[in-house]
Amino acid sequence: MRDTPLSNCERRFLLKAIEEKKRLDGRQTYDYRNIKITFGTDYGCCIVELGRTRVLCQVSCELVPPKDSRPTEGIMFFNLELSPMASPAFEPNRQSELLVMLNRQLERCLRNSKCIDTESLCVVSGEKVWQIRVDVHVLNHDGNLMDAASIAAISALSHFRRPDVAIQGRDITVFSPEERDPIPLSIYHMPICVSFAFFLQGSYLLVDPCEQEERVKDGLLVIAMNKHREICSIQSSGGIMLLKDQVLRCSKIASVKVSEITELINKALENDKKIRKEGGKFGFAESMPKERITTLKREEAPVEMADVKETANEIVNRTETPTEVVSSPVLVAMGTAQVGEGIVNSWGLDEDEEDEPQTEDTKTDDVMVISDSEEEEVVILNEEAQKSTKLSKRK
Amino acid sequence: MASVEMRLPAVHKPVSPAASQSNRDDKHLVVPGDVITSDTGFMRGHGTYMDEDRLTASVAGEVERVNKLICVRPLKTRYNGEVGDVVIGRITEVQQKRWKVETNSRLDSVLLLSSVNLPGGELRRRSAQDELAMRDYLQEGDLISAEVQSIFSDGALSLHTRSLKYGKLGQGVLVLVSPSIVKRQKTHFHNLPCGASIILGNNGYVWLYPTPGHQDEEAGGYYTSMEPVSLADREVISRLRNCLLALAAHKVLLYDTSVLYCYEASLTHQIKDILKPEIMEEIILETRQRLVEHEG
Q1: Chain A residue with the nearest C-alpha to that of B1
Q2: pTM of the model
Q3: B2 falls within a domain
Q4: Is the domain of B249 the same as that of B110?
Q5: Quick check: is B44 in a domain?
Q6: Which of A163, A150, A148, A156 is nearest to A45 (CA)?
Q7: Residue B132: what pLDDT?
Q8: What is the pLDDT of residue A321?
Q9: Which domains can be identified in chain A, with CATH numbers?
């Protein structure tokens, strides 16, 4: 099915915002979205979440006869699939340009860079070699599939373990995981793709474009690099003219990003190894946090608390002083955080100010005491209410 | 610039049975996999399949029975056109002698060159020059309001704008809702008394625009006024847009009365507060109560 076209005003808005160095989700020009890597119970299964883009990669192996031209090398087979689950624009069994581009880039990044030692995959020269098959499925498309796919592929390959084999003459015995521990693949380096989207005839660039930014882009530059600052592949599409210093700048940015991402992948692999060794629970089910279904559910967003105190003080200074002096009924319990401690309750500012009992901020920042007065409404903010206070960030 | 807003969740007030829709009981709602009937005497229609002699639903929706035919009408679906529906669409392609219009249906709808009014309102055969000048009338990305003239055999709709009330849309706000909550009425063009006008497209696209001052007869629907809209009009339209989103979130049927009641119920709140979940519930409750009184 055809994707809903972007309206003219959305297009203009995005381009204008990019001119002013602003992005829809508030990121900076060179910022990546949150990357989350989780591994499944099987070795070689990995899900990567880049913001809302989700990609699943599964690595499997099989004993096959080798290619005639290379009898001592194993075979790597890459396959990327765009399922209709990812976006209504993807149709099953439809060879689109995007699919071809992603497949080619993934192959170039992982196969041509020789990151996996294929010689070690040989079992009997000329007869049996391991064929490593990497299947990448796109689960949700929110932009920048290439980066997510390359991270997923290399993470899954690093996580994968192939069965141990023993050769006696011409007999090959493949041991099951219970008999002998499976062996990891020998990986020389981790090439990771970094995508740069260009706008307005190459004058502005963005790293890690989201889906809407991708729709208004003029061209795309994908650099595959490893943490040793070796470029594995460069691909420029869209037909835009790039200057030499632009490409050099992009490669510098890419090296920074790649080292960060490689560290993240290694950390995730370490965590998984540790949990498996300790015998803890691992897999996708455990990595998802227990989510309770509430009526008011929002995504976690980092809230900038830097100028909250100033704005709160401003609001306090702007409001007129209340007529009665009432001590605050706020009780600060151990281990709770409270924003704006000791500040006037400004919740009721827009509505009926007279009716609600106002709390007065004391000169010192001491802990407030619950008043014993019977006349007023006592509102006790205890730990439970603190936890259920919802914070929402508004811009 | 960045502000922190905090609210505590309030105790949910129990909804009185009078306010809730009373006709909810006689609707037979199913989800995919539900068995509709084990009787083999029925013919199966859309949205159903046979699972070992039992008629099972394959979509989530309402069961419709016409004599021996059972089908399930899904609640959330792409727009299925009927002849005579008013739709709002966006031009996606300009082809030879026709435009392709995106109308939230499974296939792009078709607007033939012979189905549009030429500027000036003249009636004549379309010449080759008209074909070359198609892009001057409607370009990719333009919004139009049109009526469904007929349906092709593959399900694509054929639209026409052969009336002065249809044509290219100018300044306004487009709200996307599900097609199943737009109520079928005699007219879909309303001038709301609050100071704005609304076009409720059957395909789920709703267009809000400032009420035009005087009708420009010779425009023929292609002249779009680019005069700046006043702040008061903009506020009314913003409020209406938030009300529409609130109504859509609570699955209230959209028609001029429900939109108007929701607008009036929301006047006590600020425009930006309407989208907050608790306030949304309050407004919708009041709207529902007024609608029930209005019908009863």
Answers
A1: A395
A2: 0.74
A3: no
A4: yes
A5: yes
A6: A156
A7: 78
A8: 53
A9: 8-287 (3.30.230.70), 327-390 (no CATH)
* pLDDT < 50 stretches in chain A: 322-323, 349-371, 376, 378, 380, 382-395
CB contact under 8 A, B277 and A5: no
Are B202 and B86 a contacting pair, CB within 8 Å?
yes
> Does B241 score more than 80 pLDDT?
yes
Is residue B273 domain-shared with residue B194, that is, in the same domain?
yes
Residues B37 and B97 in one domain: no
User: Do residues B142 and B280 both lie within one domain?
Assistant: yes
Exposure of A231 in the CB half-sphere (CA atoms within 13 A): 13
B4 chain-A contacts, CB cut-off 8 A:
303, 305, 308, 339, 391-394
In-domain check, residue B12: no
Q: How far apart are CA B251 and CA B253, in angstroms?
A: 6
Q: What is the DSSP letter of B262?
A: H
3-state DSSP call for residue A331? coil
- Chain A residues within an 8 Å CB radius of B104: 4
pLDDT digits (tens, 9 = 90+) for B88-97: 999 999 998 8
Q: Provide Rg for chain B, Cα atoms.
A: 22
Mean residue pLDDT across chain B: 85
Residues of B whose CB is below 8 A from A392: 4-6
Kindly report, residue by residue over A369-389, the tens digit of the pLDDT: 444 555 545 454 544 344 444
Do residue A5 and residue B92 have CB atoms under 8 angstroms apart? yes
pLDDT tens sequence across B39-89? 888 888 888 998 888 899 999 998 988 899 998 988 888 899 899 999 999
B255 and B185 in contact (C-beta within 8 Å)?
Answer: yes
Total domains, chain B = 2
Q: What CATH number has the domain bearing residue B160?
A: 2.40.50.140
Q: Say whether both B120 and B247 belong to one domain.
A: yes
In Å, how far are A127, B122, B124, B148, B212 from B116, measured between CA atoms? 70, 11, 11, 12, 22
| pLDDT-wise least confident of A342-356, B25-39, B266-280, B281-295 | A342-356
B124 and B28 part of one domain: no
Mark yes or no for CB contact B141/A4 under 8 Å: no
Do B42 and B146 fall into the same domain? no
Q: Determine contact, residues A317/A346, Cβ cutoff 8 Å.
A: no
Q: Does A339 touch chain B (CB under 8 A)?
A: yes
Does B242 map to a domain? yes
* Residues of B in Cβ contact (< 8 Å) with A7: 90, 141, 143, 174
Q: Domain limits at B46?
A: 17-74
Looking at the structure, do residues B37 and B91 belong to the same domain, yes or no? no
Neighbours of A153 (CB within 10 A): 28
pLDDT in tens, B180-223: 899 889 999 999 998 899 999 999 999 999 988 755 544 445 56
Residue B37's CATH number: 2.40.50.100
Q: Tell me, what amino acid is at A121? A: L
